[in-house]
Amino acid sequence: MLEKYFKLKENNTNVRTEVIAGITTFMTMAYILAVNPSILADAGMDRGAVFVATAVGAAFATILMALFSNYPFALAPGMGLNAYFAYTVVLQMGYSWETALAAVFIEGIIFIGLSLTNAREAIFNSIPMNLKHAVSVGIGLFIAFIGLQGANLIVSNPATMVSLFSFKEALTNDTFSSQGMGALLTVIGIIVTAVLVVKNIKGNILWGILITWVLGILLEKIGVYIPNPEIGMYSVVPSLDGIGKIPSIAPTFMKMNFKNIFSINFVVVVFAFLFVDLFDTLGTLIGVASKADMLDKDGKLPRIKGALLSDAIGTSAGAMLGTSTVTTFVESAAGVSEGGRTGLTAMVSAVLFLLSLFLSPIFLAIPAFATAPALIVVGFLMFSAITKIDFADYTETIPAYISIIIMPFTYSISEGIAFGVISYVLINLISGKAAEKKISVLMYVLSILFVLKYILL
Question: Structurally, how many domains does the chain consist of?
């Protein structure tokens, strides 16, 4: 049955590989179950209800991805979009969270229409192949940076914006047993995972997560790693308390407020959600699909309509449940790196999201220092796509380079695509190469829209 539906042999994979890939993807994404409720709680939403909405919304959208497109991509409420929802739309602009949910719901409806009319597919296909490879490389750097930051190996610095974690300072201010050990365990995890990759051990990314986590549990048990919740370092030992208990979703379910939908500011909010979600999703699909060699000879992704539609429906369904925009997760690259090639990988991740409703204490105990090595190593694997970029043509490589560096530096996939598209069109146009490159009309339109976005928003 699995073979017939997911076409495993046709995609050069098997059930075992897909299951490992699905587990790996979920474990690198599991942090969203803790982070999303925390962020949306700042907007006044019920933390428990948001936890349920996050898990159910992620599972629902990911199942759609498996059924509609047979791709190994998992979805969940997106980072960045949830922060925009809470801190900009609600706390800064003054909208209620119910109104913000209405904006997300409408954005999803618009996305469904765009997906059915092939507009999103046309945008995907219009982006030149070298830029698609660049997106993969940029995402690699981006998720590596997420891993480094989440594990406190990279920390904020007033003078230089970011800097390396100081073990010396940690020893003097009594945080070495918590933050310091977390950072050290990340380094150990990177080395362990890298060795497993070099040895070509099956399930190397997943094993890297589990080994690092178990090592953290052992160190906590003997008192070397000491949790400190005040600075975000929690116990890594799974608790049995709360297992089987699912919080009520009633406080957020179907709480959308459509009273302000005709105001100019509301339209701007919807467009902002629309823009970021559109190009974050396209960027993730481009990058992860490119890494998995899923693009055809023309750089197109077969069955992309199903992938885009599942993302769009997931967004509106998530708003109904009570969470911010659901989008395709860049952490899907971890499962792809484990060999995941079909919707079975996505289905496994979806099942684990549903199980997390009953086993949340276990899943929420997975620490950032255990998943960070996976993201950093996967970042390296995606970075290898840089070898596919044609460095002989500067009109191709300079826009690619700009796209690559913008993603981690702005903490945004969509900004990287925007700068890549604008620079590609302008450089080729001014240097007289536009006609030779046969740049599509849609690329010109996109570049104009991106410029207007920076001017008007």
Answer: 1
